[in-house]
Structures are given as structure tokens and as C-alpha cells.
Amino acid sequence: MTNLATRNLKAASLWAFIVLIFVLVPVLSTSSYQVNLACHVLIWSLFAVSFNMLWGVTGMLSLGQALYYGLGAYSVGLMVDHLGRQWYLPAMGLGVLAAAALALLLGLLVIRVGGVYFTMLTLAFAQLGWQITFKWYDFTGGDDGIQGIIPPGILESGTVYYYFVLAVVMLSIWVLKRMAFSPFGLVLRCVQQNPDRVRFLGRRVRRNQLRVYVISSLFSALAGSLMAGVDGSIHTDMLFWTTSGEVILMSVLGGINQFFGPFVGATVIILIEDLVGARTEYWSLIIGIIIMVIVLVFPKGVVGEAMRAKSLLTRTGAGR
Amino acid sequence: MKKNLCVCLAIVLGVLCALPMAVQAQEKVIRIGAMYPMTGRAGLYGIDSVAAAEMAVDEINGKGGANGYKIDITFTDSKAKPAYAVRVATRYITEDQVHFLFGIVSSGVGLAVTEISKQQKKIFIGTDHASTQLTSDKLQPYYFRVANNTFQSMAAGALYLQELQKSKPWKTIAYIGPDYAYGHDQWNELRFSLDRLGVKYQVVGEYWPKLFEPDYNSYVTSLVKDNPDILVTGFWGGDTVAFIKQAQVYGLFKKSLYFQPDAGGNYELMSAMGAELPAGLVLGARHYNNWPDTELNRKFVADFHKRTGRYPTYAAEGAYAGVYAIAEAVKIVGNPDDTEALVKALEGLKIKLPEDPDGFTSYIDPATHQIMQVQAIGVTMPNTDFPPAKMMLGDWKIYKAEDIAPPPGYPNK
């Protein structure tokens, strides 16, 4: 019992530490750019963690989560553009609901197939969404994107919006974490490891896959809708397949078998992109090399390897 | 003893901290944050822009700077991605404390960055992106553009076609251009200008290959069938080269007049195709290495060649113009910190540029923040003065700046 309590306390203090760091960013930062960067880190982290519920936890590699990320962003962008700023928050809710509905609909089609076929189908639907957004100039603004998306009221201030993002992201990640370690999360892990056994145990594989697909898409859309207000502009790039690719990269870098892996991966990639991009145009070379090293030398990702190192050390400490 | 050491350390630390501040306070610097694509298909536009901007900075700083202020320009690869460019622009403004945002080749990226410039009230000098929107319905007080927009090129093109109808009556016209905003804008603006001039024409084909399409064969065979008198294209960069190479095989240019007034006359095409480039194509661009034949243009082209070992593409002169516009504005205001005064100075700023023929000086229109320039359109013909090009433009037709500007209220009217 005490053991469990200590473990809970440990987990809670880790959470508190992460939240504290992000809470302090606006206080300690020397410029509003660092707040902006932290905002990017938070939103991409939510996107990556929600994506990893699908891939790392359930073993469904989707190459089309950008569809929902873009849907969230465009529902905010379009409603603010056409109806006015006061629609910002309702549009976020609507975007999330729309994403859930679309995921339910597409999910019924795409989860019927597994493995690489699932990946290809998700990619196809996402590219379809991108094409429509790209070409429908009168409605979506086409490849010019939408500008002038300013959050309403007090959210207009960068710092207030940052705390809003922080609260939404932390709450979402907490919900996702609870889910990942709930009985539902266990079933999802079983689905990844041995779908047949899940059936023998009287659980439905497809229904659980559909559930997690909808949940992951919903939180991806939430991340997209938050992003719309960070820079005040959105672009069709958000729906392009490279955006889906980026979250895969973040998950691999952080470690797909760790819940916080994608969070760390997103943070590392955004910071590298920023630091390297500011100094040289060979940013892609550097990122490429880092990814290669991670994959070859630390296949479990940053967090995964750190955990392994920790468990090795504690074992030695226990006198083994 | 220990106490003394602490005091000493504190003093040393204090001095070290104060030193950079003192240096910075004495330094008179204009900080420019530039963003260009340095990689990928638009990379050459970025690389030439950077070289020309650095050349302008060296020239101005070599003469003691603008009103005693030296120019310090920083470049970052925009990756041609709007979200990334916005992040870089935010960093430039809040961390590096730049006085001006600068550059950008793609209009989609330009539209995203102009939003940041508006929010942060920081002047953004656009040098190469051509979407008319930025200086019409999406114009904001802190944006200025020092290169032609597509409307101006296409209006000049319409005047060219109107004149041509008198000497060589043509009736049918077809268009092929990349399927994104830039391609669509050019075609809409050309038809708008033709209609405004009252030119009668019949459209026999419209084709929208995707950007960076490698294979134009199916489009070319359709165009051969359409047999238009005038074939207008809206490509840029490598797409122009690929299309011309593939269309030439089918003899498309023997029957139809090839017409590309916005980006066709870029030196990039001449250097890439050498002797393969057919004669008689009608092309336009934002700057030419062999026109106007003025002292300033000859010097600009020669200096660029000396610096880089190659002749400039048109993006170079845009960046060069941008740096000089900033220097002139700072000279008028006296410092680079008073943004509102700089906006006033840039509105209506007159500046002599390499692309200005004798008797004309470029100026920024106070109403649209768009630079007003003479536009020339030429025809390809043999000329080996600028190797590796074997063909250059000649037989110029010149259009006045006032005749090719968008009407007030465009595009909503």
C-alpha cells in the first residue's frame, strides 16, 4: 500500500514538475518568442501523444492524422473568417465534434483492413482532404491559407492564450494517460500484441480499434484548433502528408512504447528545428542524422532508453 | 580574503554584463531579418536574393551606412513553409529586435508573414512574391513590396496582345499554368485586363497541371489540337524549362505564339536551355540582365557576376532594391527605430533602381504600398553576351507604370 502511495506521489510530482516548468515559461522568458515556441511545443506534443495512442499503444500506423489536425484548424479559421471572432471557442468545439464524426465514418472504412493497407487508406483520405482544401479557393482560401485568426477577448494576449493552451493540453494529456492505463488501454495493448487472444477473451477488436481511432482523431483536431490562434494564420500544409509524417518522427524520436515519448520527441524536434534552422540552411541534414542515430543506436527512443538506463542503475543499486 | 574575492568576482561579473550593453548602445545598426527559401525548387531564387542583398549591404556600409547606421542583415531558410516562416519572423522581431522583416519568395508564405508584421507593427519589405492580394485586399499598413505583382505583368501582357492584334490579327487564346493561386491569378488578371481594354478573343483551352509536374505530354497534345493563336503560360522556374522542352518536340511554337509575361523572361530559363531555347517566344520578367542598357543596370549585373561567378536571375534585383529602399527610408527619417515615421517615408519613396530606364525613377504608391515600375516585354533571339545563355530577349516593348497598375478597389470591383 505504501509502495503504491509512493509511486502515486512520484508520478504526481513528475506531473507537477512538468506543469511547473511550462507555467514558468512566460515568467522566465526574455522574449515573447520563447512563449510562442513553448506554445508550439505544447500543441505538437498533444498531437504526437494522441497519434501515439493509435500507433504506439494499439499498433495502428496512420499516415493521415493531419486530416483531423487540419480539420480542427480550418473549422476555427473558417468560422472566424466568415462569422467573426466571437465564434472562436464554439468553432473549437465544433471542429472537435466534426473530427469525431468524420473519424467514426472513415474509421468504419479504414479499420476493416490492417497493417500497411490501413496506413495507405488513411493516407489516401487525408490527401483527399488536402486536395479539397487546396483547390476550393472560394471557401477555404486555397493554398493562400487563412490569415487574421485572432482569439477573442482576453485570449488575444499572447500570455493568456499560452496559459489557455497549457491548460487544455495538460488536461487532454492527463485524460489520454488515464485512458492508456485504464482497462480500455490494456485491451488496446492486447489488440496490438495478439488480436486473436482478445477475441478469445470476449472482447471486440474492431470496436476497440474504432474507439481509439475516434479518440485519437478528436484530440488531433483539438491540437489543430489550438494552433490556429498561435500564429494567426493557417495553411493547407497542415493537412499535407508531411504533417502526418512529422508526428511519426516525433514519436519515433521520443519512443513509441512510452506514454511521454512523443511529448519529449515533439519538444526535441521543435527545439532542434529552431536552433539549427536559425544557424544554417542544412537543418534537414542535421535532423536526418539525429534521427538515424536514434533509430540505429537507441531504438527505444529518448524516453525508452532513459527508462532502461534507470532500471539498470536501480538494479545495481539494489545490490545485484 | 574570501570576502574580497567575492567582491572582486561581483565587480568583474557586473562589468562583463554591462560591457555588451555599452557596446550595443554605441553601435548604430539597422537590423534586417530576411527569409528566403535556400533549398528545394525555389532555392535559386533565394540564393540569388541573398547574394544581391549582401551586395547592396556591402555597398551601403562601404559608403558609411545610411545616416551613419550600418546595415546588419540576417538570413534564415524559410523552407517555403508558412508556419515555419511565421516562427522565424516572430523570433526576428522579439529576440533579435530587427527593424525590418524582409524577403519571401512564395506568396502563401508572404500572406502568413504579413499577418505577423501587422500584429507586431513591424515593417515587412516583400521582395519577390507576386500575389496582388498583398497590396490590395490583404494590404496592411506595415507591408511594402519592391517588386512587380502579377497584375502589373499581366496588364502589360494585355497591352502587348492588344497592339499585336493590330499588326497580326489573332483570335484564339489558350492558357496553361500551375494549379495553385499563382497560376490562377495570372489567368484571371490577364482576362480582366484584356476585357478592360476591350480586346476581343476566344478562349479555346485552359489547363491546370500541378506545380512541379514532370510530364506535360498529354497537355501538349491537347494544346496542339486546340491550335490557339496565342498560348499563354503561367509557369515559373524549372516548370517553364520542362514545358518548353516537351512542347518544342510537337512543334507547338510554330503555330502558336508562346506568351509568358510574368516569370518567363527570367534569366534562369536562358541559362538552363542555352541554344535549345527557341527564338520568337514572347517573355516578360521583373528584371533583365540586358535591359535597360543603363550605367546602373550594367554595373549591377557586372558586380553580381564578379561576386558570384554567374549572372543574376530576376529575384536578385528585387532583394537589392529592398535593401536600398530601407537605406533611403532610414536616411529620410534619421533612425531605424521610429516605425511610424519610416512607414510615412516609404509611402511615396522615390528610388533609382537598376531596372529603371533613363528618365524614369521607381516609386512606391502610397495608396497600395506597391512599387511602381516600367514593365518591358521582349522576344527571344540569339545573344551570347551572358553565357551560358545563347538566347536572350530583345525587340523590347515598354509599358508605363501608370498604365499597368490595378484599378482602385481591385479585386473587389
Instruction: Estimate the mean pLDDT confidence of chain B.
Output: 90
Query: H/E series of chain A, N to C?
Result: HHHHHHEHHHHEHHHH
Mean pLDDT reading of chain A: 90
Number of helices of chain B: 13
The CATH superfamily title of the largest domain in chain B: Response regulator
Tally of extended strands of chain A? 2
Shape of chain B: globular
Cα end-to-end separation of chain B: 82 Å
Number of helices of chain A: 14
Q: Could you say how many structural domains of chain B there are in total? A: 2
CATH architecture of the largest domain in chain B: 3-Layer(aba) Sandwich
* SSE-based structural type of chain A: mainly alpha
- What structural class results from the helix and strand content of chain B? alpha/beta
| Strand residue percentage of chain B | 15-25%
Radius of gyration of chain B (Å): 23 Å
The neighbouring-strand order within the major sheet of chain B is 7-6-8-9-10-14-15
